[in-house]
Amino acid sequence: MTSSNDASASPALPYRARGSLKGRTILMSGGSRGIGLAIATRAARDGANIVIMAKTGDPHPKLEGTVFTAAEQLEAAGGQALPLVGDVRNDGDVAAAVAAAVERFGGIDVVVNNASAIDLSRTDAIDMKRYDLMQDINVRGTFLLSKLALPALRKSANAHILTLSPPLNLDPKWAGMHLAYTMAKYGMSLTTLGLAEELKNDGVSVNSLWPCTLIDTAAIRNMPGGAQIVQAARGSEIMADAAHAVLTGAHLPAGSGGSARASGNFYTDEEVLRAAGVSDFRPYSLGAAEEKLVPDIFL
């Protein structure tokens, strides 16, 4: 299994694509590492054009990878890449990224809302700067990037907005555990719900994708005890394969419309890949038995 910073797919992985992203242009927030980079790399293997807008232009002291090293990886995988240093919280940066994607590749077919901030503190402990950061990146950033890309997306024959956010689960458990973070992630999911309805006659599909288990990322590895925690995780390749299946529309779960026009769904990685014919998820694991994997939150 590759690490979270080496997202190239392994031939041992069980997903077998029946659709392709060749020639399609993807605009992604974040993506210099982790799940976003894995999704982008899987698309690059098809020959997609990927525009990555991320803040990491210079090496981070603790996290590997920059927007420029990510672009190198995407081009090595077979795609075309446009790295942009920008902040999804900044209106000007987002508008410039949309304009650059259209100028370089002639349009935008897919927006992936990948950028996200996390703080699981309870209400009395969370710093309001962290609260504002999560609201600005997760909710406002998702809304802003989607909004500004709409004119270009409406011109695409295969337009899709894919947001990495969970199903809207109103079990009080999730609000009670980490209210500030739950509000921020559910804000992203509400954007999916609302845009899917708003754009249902515009030819733009809008969906969310969320992992069933903990995913190995550099951010988790840098947490206290992170190296041990990720041993009970899956690699980011599972989310990359699931995103590929959703964006190609070749195989989607029952009830989701069964075509690339499916919209308003909150998919999980396992759900999508089972519909794609995957029955053995062990190759995605870092070695832990399936029953020992740590479930992700909100499910």
Question: In words, what does this structure look like?
Answer:
The chain is of the alpha/beta class and 299 residues long. The chain is 39% helix and 12% strand. It is built from 10 helices and 7 strands. The chain has helices spanning 34-46, 67-77, 91-105, 128-153, 172-177, 179-198, 218-221, 226-229, 237-248, 269-275, and strands at residues 25-29, 49-54, 80-85, 110-113, 159-163, 204-210, 265-268. The chain has a 7-stranded parallel β-sheet, sandwiched between helices. The longest helix has 26 residues, at 128-153.
Largest sheet: 7 strands, parallel
From the helix content, strand content and strand pairing, which structural class follows? alpha/beta
Chain-averaged pLDDT: 91
Q: What is the number of helical segments per DSSP (H or I, 4+ residues)?
A: 10
Q: Which residues sit in consecutive blocks of at least 5 with pLDDT less than 50?
A: 1-9
Percent helix: 25-40%
Secondary-structure element order, N to C: EHEHEHEHEHHEHHHEH
**What is the radius of gyration?**
18 Å
Number of strands: 7
Strand arrangement within the widest β-sheet reads 3-2-1-4-5-6-7
Report the span from N to C terminus. 25 Å
Shape: globular
Strand content: 5-15%
